[in-house]
Write a structure and sequence with these properties.
Layout lengths: L8 H26 L4 E3 L3 E5 H7 L6 E11 L3 E8 H12 L13 H26 L3 E3 L3 E6 H9 L8 E10 L7 E10 L3 H8 L7
Antiparallel strand pairs: 1-7, 2-7, 3-4, 3-5, 3-6, 4-8, 7-8
Helix pairs in contact: 1-4, 3-4
Length: about 210
């Protein structure tokens, strides 16, 4: 059994709750940027295989927008925040005020790419900040990088070293619910790929054993 697969339902609930705290912080920041109310929550956290991770993002050949960063400090790992191109297009339009922006029109403008990078930075940073506050550990993100590419190409980058010790990851679903003027919700996925020892350190700081 891999170190990720030892994570039980109680521990996943803890990660989900930490995610919800981070989501609240991120929603506040996004509401200020978009100048409208954004409610954000984390409905689920679960363990998935690498193959399932790719399928959840649309399949290995599906093109998505992704922000990747390394988790550094008292624990280490990798994190992806992945959005469909349709959601990315909507958010860029909202952040830039350009209702004509099309995500499938290349080359992308620097402004559009900066918006996506900032969005990923806010969401990922809010999650890691809440994890750090919750555990009182020193946890911070590296400088994030943005990719618009096929899921397989994007995720394989983060799996190069981790695949030697595990074949599973934690997925933290994220839903951004727009205000009543907009019918649909916006969803994305955090994929947390922890290095060995990540959860031992996290749950030890919380007084929870992986063997509980």
């Amino acid at each position: 059994m891999s170190f990720i697969e030892k994570v039980n339902l109680l521990q996943l609930d803890i990660l989900k709750e930490i995610g919800n705290i981070g989501a609240g912080n991120a929603a506040t920041a996004l509401s200020a940027i978009l100048n409208r109310k954004i409610d954000m929550n984390v409905p689920n956290a679960r363990v998935v295989s690498f193959d399932e991770m790719m399928e959840m993002a649309g399949g290995a050949d599906h093109v998505v927008a992704s922000v990747f960063l390394r988790i550094e400090g008292d624990v280490s790992g990798s994190m992806f925040f992945i959005l469909s191109l349709q959601v990315a297009e909507y958010l860029i339009r909202q952040m830039t005020g350009d209702g004509t922006f099309l995500i499938d029109s290349t080359p992308y403008t620097e402004l559009a790419l900066s918006c996506l990078l900032e969005l990923g930075n806010i969401l990922s940073g809010s999650y890691l900040s809440s994890l750090s506050d919750f555990t009182r550990l020193n946890i911070y993100p590296s400088v994030p990088s943005l990719s618009i590419d096929m899921v397989g190409a994007i995720i394989s980058y983060g799996l190069l070293e981790l695949s030697q010790v595990s074949d599973t990851a934690i997925v933290i679903d994220t839903v951004l619910e727009k205000d009543q003027h907009f019918a649909e919700s916006i969803d994305g996925h955090f994929f947390l790929l922890p290095d060995p020892g990540f959860f031992d350190t996290i749950f030890s700081a919380l007084g929870v054993s992986l063997n509980d």
